[in-house]
């Protein structure tokens, strides 16, 4: 049995994240509507221009926060036509474009330090002369490792488990 298409997604957002996203979207839309229609509900010391610009800035900030709390990243592989697409979705809106999939040599999952002393776990696809591209990252090791393993199995290549930088392991995923 050959797999022709694979979709790997972060899944659905939690109910708390969706509630926060709804809150931020509502605040953002209301403030932007107030800005565009020039409505000043509170005439505080005749600071109309400051208030109206504040509406715009806070409205845009709230919309961005709504997007952050509701965005889902997915990676689509079309193995038959050798293409992949990284897609970002907010509700019914999907953004991403198909790119040619290079001949992948292996998949790696490794621990990447951040500037604040924390870590992320990155999943990379490695191809031609040690070139790679990142398809996923997460603050937690288990979902990153599972995604890397699933991608490696789907592409029929091996997985380099570098979640412990002092004990890197090769995991064979190709069928015998």
What does this structure look like?
The protein is of the alpha+beta class. It has two domains: 1-89; 102-171. It contains three helices and ten strands; from the N terminus they run βααβββββββαββ. It has helices at residues 15-37, 48-70, 141-155; strands at 5-9, 72-78, 83-90, 93-95, 98-100, 104-113, 119-127, 131-138, 158-162, 169-171. The strands form two sheets. Strands 1, 2, 3, 4 and 5 form a five-stranded antiparallel β-sheet that branches. Helix 1 packs antiparallel against helix 2 (48-70). The radius of gyration is 22 Å and the shape is elongated. The two termini are 14 Å apart. The mean pLDDT is 84.
Q: What count of domains describes the coordinates?
A: 2
The number of helical runs is 3
Poorly predicted ranges:
none
**What is the gyration radius calculated from CA atoms?**
22 Å
The first-to-last residue Cα distance is 14 Å
């Amino acid at each position: 049995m050959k797999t022709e298409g694979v979709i790997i997604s972060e899944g659905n957002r939690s109910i708390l994240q969706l509630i926060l996203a709804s809150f931020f979207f509502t605040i953002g839309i209301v403030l932007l509507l107030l800005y565009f229609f020039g409505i000043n509900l509170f005439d505080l010391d005749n600071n109309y221009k400051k208030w109206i610009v504040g509406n715009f800035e806070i409205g845009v900030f709230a919309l961005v926060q709504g997007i952050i709390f509701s965005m889902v990243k997915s990676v689509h592989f079309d193995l038959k036509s050798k293409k992949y697409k990284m897609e970002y979705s907010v509700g019914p809106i999907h953004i991403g474009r198909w790119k040619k999939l290079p001949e992948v040599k292996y998949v790696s999952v490794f621990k990447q330090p951040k500037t604040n002393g924390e870590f992320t776990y990155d999943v990379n696809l490695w191809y031609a002369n040690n070139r790679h591209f990142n398809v996923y990252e997460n603050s937690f090791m288990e979902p990153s490792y599972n995604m890397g393993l699933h991608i490696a199995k789907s592409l029929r290549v091996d997985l380099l488990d570098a979640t412990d930088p002092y004990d890197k392991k090769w995991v064979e995923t190709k069928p015998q």
